[in-house]
Design goal:
The chain has 105 residues and is mostly helical. Helix content is 58%, strand content 6%. A two-stranded antiparallel ribbon has the order 1-2. Helix 2 packs across helix 3 and helix 2 crosses helix 5. The protein is flat and about 45 Å long.
Length: 105
Amino acid sequence: MNPPTTPLHEAVRAALEHYWRTLEGDEPRDLYALVLREVERPLLECAMRYCESNQTRAAACLGINRGTLRKKLRAVSIRGARLAAAIISRGQLAWELSPEKIQIR
């Protein structure tokens, strides 16, 4: 699998700039929390996939303790390592980066 050609920070910037354009003059609310919610789930899913559903390894990879990882997995409705592994099946991780959408599928 080839790595994405767009650095993550540039992809996030492009998505945020698109978000600002779609506001049409409205003021954003809780933007920080929105961005964290949008990024956290795919981050956790990818870490679990990369670490073959091993929560101890995934926690170390993320730089958090295993208890924190388990709490975050529950908070974003990833129930157990098997579901996280099923969400992104082995060998099927693909990046789709565009100004309109950043998606890991």
